[in-house]
Every structure is written in C-alpha cells, then in structure tokens.
Amino acid sequence: MTNYDRTVSESSLAEMLRSRGLRLTAQRQLVLQAVLDLGHATPEQVHTAVREVAAGVNITTIYRTLELLERLGLVTHTHLSHGSPTYHAAGEHQHVHLVCRNCGGIDEIDPELIRPFADQLLAQRGFRVDIGHVSLFGVCGSCENGDQE
Amino acid sequence: MTNYDRTVSESSLAEMLRSRGLRLTAQRQLVLQAVLDLGHATPEQVHTAVREVAAGVNITTIYRTLELLERLGLVTHTHLSHGSPTYHAAGEHQHVHLVCRNCGGIDEIDPELIRPFADQLLAQRGFRVDIGHVSLFGVCGSCENGDQE
DNA sequence: CTTCGTGCAAAGTGTTTGCAAGATT
DNA sequence: AATCTTGCAAACACTTTGCACGAAG
C-alpha cells in the first residue's frame, strides 16, 4: 500500500514472470500497479485506471492479467455482494472486508480479530477459513446512525 | 427445513401476498417450495426443480419470484464464490455458510458461533454484521486430509 | 372486469475464447 | 527467430426489460 510495498511487488513481478518463462509487459506492470493503488477494485475499475496511463489496453487483457497475477500469488479476489469480484494485493497485509449493504463502502479489519473464531471452526468442524477471502456484509457505523445517504 | 417450517412459510406467503394486494400463483408457491426443499439453490437450480412439477415455467419468472420472495422476507441470498447467487429460506434458521474452495461443498454452522465476533465488530467498529449473509471460504475437513477429489 | 403475473423475445452486463498481428526475450 | 501477449470480434453465461396474453381476485 506504500511505495515500499509497491516496489517489492513490482520487482517480484519481474522475477516471477522470468522464472516461469513468461514476459514482462507494460500491461502487466500497469495492472499490478493499479491493483496496488486502488486497494480494492473490480476488473472494470482496474481497466479505467490502466487506461488513464495507456489508453489502448483492452478489458480482455485486464481479465487475463488479473488471473495471471492471482496465479502468481500477487493478488487475490473476493466476492463482494453482487456483480464483479474485487481484486486486491495479496500477501503481507491480509484483511477481512466489511461491506456496507447501505452505502456500498468497504472497510477492512485486521484478520487477527477473526482468528479466534477461525481457530474455533478449525477445531470444531475441521474447516480452515481462508482469512484473506473473508467478506462480511452488514451496515457500517455511519449508515447505522441515520447518516443515510 | 422440516415440514412444519414449510407449512409456516407457505401460509405466510399467502398472507403476505394478500396483505399487499399481490396474487398467489402456482409459480410463486412452487418457487418457495423449491427453495425450502433445496436448502441452497441458484436461480437455475430452482428453475430445474420447479420444472419437474410445472414444465412451462420460465426462468424469468424464477428471477422475478425470487426477488419478490426476498422483498417479502421469506428468502435471502448469499454470494458463494463466483457465478450465481444462492437462495435459501430466511428467518428462523439463519446460518453461516462454509464454502469449500476445493470440493465446492457448502456447510452451515449455527450463527451463534460467530456472535461473539460480530458483537466485537459492533463495539469496536460500529459495524453490524448481517449474520444471515455470511459466507466463509476455505477448505473443509474432508479436503484438508488428502481426500482430494 | 380490473389489475397483476407470466411467457416470450430481445436487450443488457460481465466474462471468456479464437485467432492473427505485435511485442519480448 | 521463436514464442508469448495483446487487441479485436465473437461467443457465452447470467440477468433484466418490454409487451401482449392469460390468470387471480
């Protein structure tokens, strides 16, 4: 999320691609950077962001690249409410998403908060929760107090 | 989930429709019953189930009816992984979904298990989790132990 | 008989695929 | 030069909309 992280991920990209005989292209760098910059973004939002820098990039490339970046372990996606999935940088800063059904806002919380519950699930049901993929729906604080937008 | 519940919901349907000047139709009864029977189902699965009884029902009607039943508070939907949402009966037996990323299986747990965590979120972040809408992704017990399918 | 609901067809989203032209190594 | 990537267009899957006919109250 900081410049430092971005540099780390950008260089990982070059290495990960090379080590698999894949190629480093401007599009791939731009898509990764867009995901890092946006924090949470749908393929379409990534597309828009990338286009601001390189107008000709096709949405197809966005989809293919997001899929690739996910295989490389650089990004992950979650399914927030309806419609398109949203992508975000993977690894370091895992987080649980809090999605407000009213205003559509997305908040994040430290995954450690859900750890006790996750551990309980593992112990009781043998189910290992993927904490980086959790999205909880509900109503955020602002909307809860008549700040209805 | 039992016959008793079904009866309750079926009669609720008639009342809720009447009280709003809407009409009770065979399609609406069939869709509701399918959701109750199936437990978790995508619009397409509901369609298939309904067709077994009434062949001519159109998928459009399934969509419209599911939306209606949701407005009436009789069913809810969740977004499990990618693709179509899945619907299930609302109210009484709320539950949290455990979705296995490996085998695709859906398990349910008592929402009380997540209550402490939900309460914590409300206290700390003012976010009120909609427990009936929670889906957690991960790996289920069977898949966790080499029962890889 | 009035108003609501359904089926059908068509239009909309969002996503994937096939293929030739273009870029990277 | 070899092969991976991209853009484009078309195909897809899922969902929504418009409208006339049919059904419920």
Architecture overview:
Two copies of one chain form a homodimer. By secondary structure, the first copy, chain A, is α+β, with helices and mostly antiparallel strands. Chain A has two domains: 10-89, Winged helix-like DNA-binding domain superfamily/Winged helix DNA-binding domain (Arc Repressor Mutant, subunit A), CATH 1.10.10; 96-144, Ferric-uptake regulator, C-terminal dimerisarion domain (Dna Ligase, domain 1). Chain A is 46% helix and 16% strand. In chain A, the strands form two sheets. A three-stranded mixed sheet of chain A has the order 4-3-6. In chain A, helix 2 crosses helix 4 and helix 3 packs across helix 4. Chain A is globular, with a radius of gyration of 17 Å. The two termini of chain A are 29 Å apart. The mean pLDDT of chain A is 87. The interface between A and B is medium-sized, with 33 and 34 residues. Strand 5 of chain A pairs antiparallel with strand 6 (135-139) of chain B. Chain A binds a DNA duplex (25 and 25 nucleotides) through helix 2 and helix 4.
